[in-house]
Amino acid sequence: MAEIYDLHCHSTASDGALSPTELVTRAHEQGVTSMALTDHDTTTGLAEARTAATAKGIRLIPGIELSVSWHDKCFHIVGLGINPDYPPLAQATQDLQTVRVERAEKIAHKLEKKRIPGALEAVKHAAGDGMITRTHFADFLLSQHHVSTQQEAFDRYLGQGKPAYVSTSWAEMSLAIKWITESGGVAVLAHPLRYKLTANWMKRLLTAFKEAGGQGIEVVTSRINADEIKLIAGYAASFGLAGSKGSDFHNPENQWVELGRLAPLPSAIKPVWELLEF
Questions:
Q1: Is residue 165 part of a domain?
Q2: In terms of DSSP bridges, do strands 186-189 and 216-221 run parallel, antiparallel, or are they unpaired?
Q3: What is the pLDDT along the chain (278 residues), one digit of tens a residue?
Q4: Does 211 share its domain with 233?
Q5: How many domains does the structure of the chain reveal?
Q6: How close are the terminal C-alpha atoms of the chain, in Å?
Q7: Which domain holds residue 182?
Q8: Distance in angstroms (rounded) separating the CA atoms of residues 47 and 145
Q9: Same-domain pairing of 178 and 268
């Protein structure tokens, strides 16, 4: 039976709609054989996911998606095969929880200025014990009929330069990569085309990423075409990076993104899972 990998997805521990158990169950139903739970800046869902994966016969790769800062821009680094109990990484997730709460308070205040009250209480309730993300605010704006889609929430309120955008200082990229690698994991640049960088800036980013110890790049993601895969595969080859693939699944209501529904990794690219110890 062919292995089906999905090395980027989210649960209710951050901004996913499914619990870790429900997520693993859905992955199993979709034929996924190896998956990584990569919640935003937290590892709290891993223990539950591991129990569910063992029951379903799925290989669970412990992961995280860290928000990082580089040249005053925010990027996401996926850590695969991490040790969530590695003290510096565990401390970092605690610190990032504080950063996210403070950002949430500022976003809510800006929304109040736009005569949209009640956001903070709503997103705290929605997140529960998980990390508060901008997706929670997008869902709130959608539920209150201020927007008609999640994307419109970012385009009108939450995106950079918009009325409720809050610039946030995340961990330096090199430091986050150090947490991942020293915990035994592999650092992967998530969804590289989403940052809308010029070719020159992408090369600068990948140079810094590689020098800091980064080893992989997401070559295959959901809603990506063949030309885009070829472009990222070229960057992977140029910088000696292994290729990863992940859906970035959050919610089953999004019909365009499904666990395991991913194009093949180009054969010339070294798969990142070959770097992981199973």
A1: no
A2: parallel
A3: 689 999 999 999 998 999 999 999 999 999 999 999 999 999 999 999 999 999 999 999 999 999 999 998 999 999 999 999 999 999 999 998 899 899 999 999 999 999 999 999 999 998 887 888 899 999 999 999 999 998 999 999 999 899 999 988 899 999 999 999 999 999 999 999 999 999 999 999 999 999 999 999 999 999 999 999 999 999 999 999 999 999 999 999 888 999 999 999 999 999 999 999 76
A4: yes
A5: 2
A6: 18
A7: 5-87+173-275
A8: 36
A9: yes
